[in-house]
Structure formats: structure tokens, C-alpha cells
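On clarity, I found the account of how folds are encoded harder to follow than it need be. Since the whole study asks how a given chain folds, the encoding of that fold should be made plain. For illustration, here is how one protein appears when written out as sequence plus C-alpha cells:
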Amino acid sequence: MEAHKRTDPAQAGDAQLASMVAAGDPGAFEVLMRRHNGALYRTARSIVRDDAEAEDIVQESYLLAYRKAGSFRGEASLSTWLTRIVVNEATGRLRKTRRRADIIELVPGLSGIEADEEDAMSDERSMPETPDEAALRAEARRLIEARIDALPDGLRTVFVLRAIEDLSVQETADALGLLEATVRSQYFRARGLLREALARDLDHAVGSAFSFDGARCDRIVAAVLARLRD
């Protein structure tokens, strides 16, 4: 326990960080969340295609990871372990949503949850750009996100993990429970579809897709920590 007290969580590697979380260190858990928030949010969103739902999935996944931190043995990387939890939570919700589709269709007013943070997001993204450059960047990002959203379900998640999160083929296969050959074929198929839509701009613009802004990061961390205190 003394070693944990002397260790700065921000300087700890993932394996050590997981051990500190399992020992009940709240500071370590906050560092863990901030370190992996962006990747896990983008993973969840690639499955459910809804900003607010993706946030909620990440929060629930963190709570589950916190309770199961002691079971992390390091056979896979911490990011892969967390991604598996998010994928399971997101796909489970997606199955439930699809089963409820016929019922929801009959009930007025249940068309989904709208994200309400647009003003905060625009404040966070103040950049020293000309108005033309800012408009071009925003339009390119909207186009990329729309094209990624339009990919078939399996291809979309593989593409987000491989191209945006830069996971290896093996890490992606482990996270999604797929064969490495399947990951490779789905990734190249997804790239081909996107190249048809985005042509030369794809490789230069895709890195900024689904930017994870500071306000959303702070909100997820605060919500999870508050629920742990309840």
C-alpha cells in the first residue's frame, strides 16, 4: 500500500494503474478514465451511432471495470480489456434496442435522446484559424463522420479501432472476438468504401473524426466518480 501512495498515477503504466485501481485508489481511477476516455467513447459511438448513448455506455463500462479491476491479469493490454467491456455493453444495448423497435414505433415521443452539449463543444474548439479554414475543417469532419456512420455495422467498428484508435490487427481481433483474417478483410473493405466516397481527402482528414472534447471527458469522469460515491 505504501508503494501505491508514493506512486504518481499520472506516471504509472497501465498495468500498475490497474493494480492501483483494484486497491481502491480513486486518483488512479480518474487517471485511467482520462487516459482511455477518447478511445472508448469512439468505440462505443462506432457501434450505436449516438453521442449521448455512447457517453452512457462508457460510464457503465467504467463502473463495471472498476468492480472487476482485481480480475485484470495483464494477459491482454488494459486498453484491449476495457475495449472488450465497452463492445459488450454497446452491442448488448443495440440488441435490446432492435428488439424494442416495433414497440417504440407504436408509442409517440420515443424517438431517441438528443445531445445537448453543442454550445459547450463549439467553445472548446476555439482555434487560431481563419473563418474559411475553420469552416472547411468543420465540413470535412462532418463529411468523414457521416461516411463512417454509413458503413455496415461490423466494418464500421473495425475501421474505428484500426484507423482512428490505431489498434493492431491482433488487438482489434481480441477486442471484438474475431479472427485476425476477418479483421484484415473487413478493414480493407471499409477503407475501400470510404475511399470511394472521400477520395484523396480520406487519409489527411480521418484522424480528426469523432474528436473527444474536454467538456465530454470531464462530464464522464465526474459522473462516474459521483456514482461511485453514492
